[in-house]
Amino acid sequence: MSRSYARNVNTASLITLCPVCLHAFQDAKKAFLRRADVRQQTKDVCTYCQTRYGFDYYVQSSAAHRDTIRRKVRTHVSASNH
Q1: Of residues 17, 24, 22, 14, the one with CA closest to residue 54
Q2: Are 61 and 31 contacting, i.e. CB atoms less than 8 angstroms apart?
Q3: Computed from CA positions of residues 35, 41, 47, 53, in that sequence, does the dihedral angle turn out positive or negative?
């Protein structure tokens, strides 16, 4: 498996969230949210409430997000240093 494969975002996790539903996700702390396009100007109908308008976000579970951070932070320590 290449390193670039681990960093690809699953497009199935792309959802649209209005501010109210966005705060509900943030308060639950079960998922990590990241804006799909910071420069997005047009809003779409929210995937959850389907009444308000919001922006596109990538959603990743907190456990999966922690694993990707750990992979990035780990450094190689040579055996001669032990």
Answers
A1: 17
A2: yes
A3: positive
Cα–Cα dist 72/26, whole Å: 23
* pTM (two decimals): 0.63
**CA-to-CA distance for 78 and 49, rounded, in angstroms?**
52
Backbone CA torsion sign across 41, 9, 65, 78: negative
Q: The tokens of 28 are what? A: 């639950």
Angstrom distances, CA of residue 26 to CA of 7, 42, 61, 65, 81: 22, 22, 12, 14, 42
From the list 54, 21, 55, 52, the residue with the least C-alpha distance to 37 is: 55
3-51 pLDDT per residue, tens: 544 555 554 589 999 999 999 988 888 888 899 999 999 999 999 999 9
Residue with tokens 């494969």: 5
